[in-house]
Automatic annotation (TrEMBL):
Name of the protein described by the UniProt record: HIT-like protein
Classification via SUPFAM superfamilies: HIT-like (SSF54197)
Sequence ranges assigned to domain HIT in this UniProt record: 10-123
PROSITE patterns: HIT_1 (PS00892), HIT_2 (PS51084)
Length: 123
């Protein structure tokens, strides 16, 4: 499947510095920042700097270095927020892809949700 990437999406603008964000962590290939409308006390988004619409697009076309950095960044954000499973608090990681998921921003992002009991899986 060929993906078409909209360079005017809101996260592309954040990556270009055209819109401010509350940065949590920056790496060579990724940016982590707080969600503007948090669903939990800690709601952090991790995005690749590359132009990928969703997770399928990313794992199909990104380099191994980008994929490794993305996974490590997600893990670091969880740990640095103090929500490692080792602390007893825990977290939830979600990514939406495509219309049925209600994906709003067409640039891959993982939601890291933490800071309260989230109950059963959200649907
Ligand atoms: P999606 O529904 O695409 O999985 O999630 C998009 C997320 O991006 C939502 O949780 C929404 O609150 C967040 N969001 C949308 N616009 C902005 C923005 O300008 N800044 C930040 N930090 N988050 C945004």
């Amino acid at each position: 499947m060929a993906y078409s990437y909209d360079t005017e999406n809101i996260f592309a603008k954040i990556l270009r510095g055209e819109i401010p964000n509350d940065t949590v962590l920056e790496t060579e290939h990724c940016l982590a920042f707080r969600d503007i409308a948090p669903q939990t006390p800690d709601h952090i988004l991790v995005i690749p700097r590359g132009a990928y619409v969703n997770f399928d697009h990313f794992v199909t076309e990104a380099s191994d270095a980008e994929i490794l950095d993305f996974n490590r960044t997600v893990a670091r954000v969880c740990k640095e927020a103090g929500v490692s499973p080792d602390t007893g608090n825990g977290y939830r990681v979600i990514t939406n892809a495509g219309p049925d998921s209600m994906q709003e921003v067409p640039h891959l992002h993982f939601h890291i949700l933490a800071g309260r009991n989230m109950g059963a899986l959200l649907v």
